[in-house]
Amino acid sequence: MCGGMRIAIAGGHGQIGRLLSRRLAAAGHEPVALIRAADQSADVEADGAIPVVIDLEHTDDAALAEALTGCDAAVFAAGAGPDSGPERKLSLDRDGAILLADASVQAGVRRLVVISSRGADTFDPDSDEGFQIYLRAKSEADAAVRAHDDLDWTIVRPGSLTDEPGTGELEVAESIEGSIPRADVAHLVAELVTSDRAVHAQFEVVSGSTPVGKLTFS
């Protein structure tokens, strides 16, 4: 993939979503920020993104596919947040990602990068604790995305997120412990969504010593 791309970002007003929009816009791409409320428009416009108001928890795949029409790629960067209840973790972190994958197929958008979570598959199925529900939501969403043969998907599972400045140096593995600045998640996702690197790869990522451009994905 080369030249300017039009890239939809679910969770466009979130911390990683906004960092991603700024990075993509600076590189000559056209980010489309999918946002829940119209009053978030000015913020994402300041990031260089085009705001599209659509609530992933209160729409269907046909309406979302219409919003994605004309896009070259999509990113799932949405999340209910640590203070949300179990219902929203399932309705957004899980069902929102599945909805974006389904709508991408309908809109003819093959490239999809999903931001998941380190340790997603280690959830306790018998627990109703919030973090365990979150891991379950991510795990089940990732499995649904992987089942799409008609998508060039990549699943990025970051370690603990921090607000430290990005270093541009990371480490990836099937399973790895550590933390990562949100800025570096945005850096990596921008690199992946605008290329064919890591297609059909799922991996965990934390801060490390390898520049983003030199990372290898199994």
Describe this structure in words.
There is one protein chain. The protein is an alpha/beta fold and 218 residues long. Helices cover 35% and strands 23% of the residues. It has six helices and eleven strands. It has helices at residues 15-26, 41-46, 61-68, 86-107, 130-146, 182-193, and strands spanning 6-10, 30-35, 50-53, 73-76, 111-115, 152-158, 160-162, 169-173, 179-181, 201-207, 210-211. Helix 4 links the parallel strand 4 and strand 5 (111-115). Helix 1 (15-26) crosses helix 6 (182-193), helix 3 packs across helix 4 and helix 4 packs parallel to helix 5. It is globular.
Shape: globular
The N- and C-terminal alpha carbons lie at a distance of 20 Å
Determine the strand fraction and express it as a percent band: 15-25%
Largest sheet: 9 strands, mixed
Radius of gyration: 16 Å
Helicity range of the residues? 25-40%
Number of domains: 1
Number of helices: 6
Mean pLDDT: 96
- Which structural class should the secondary elements be placed in? alpha/beta
CATH third-level topology: Rossmann fold
Low-confidence stretches: none
Number of E-type strands: 11
CATH class: Alpha Beta
For the biggest β-sheet, the strand order reads 3-2-1-4-5-6-10-8-11
H/E element order: EHEHEHEHEHEEEEHEE
From the coordinates shown, what is the CATH architecture? Answer: 3-Layer(aba) Sandwich
CATH superfamily: NAD(P)-binding Rossmann-like Domain
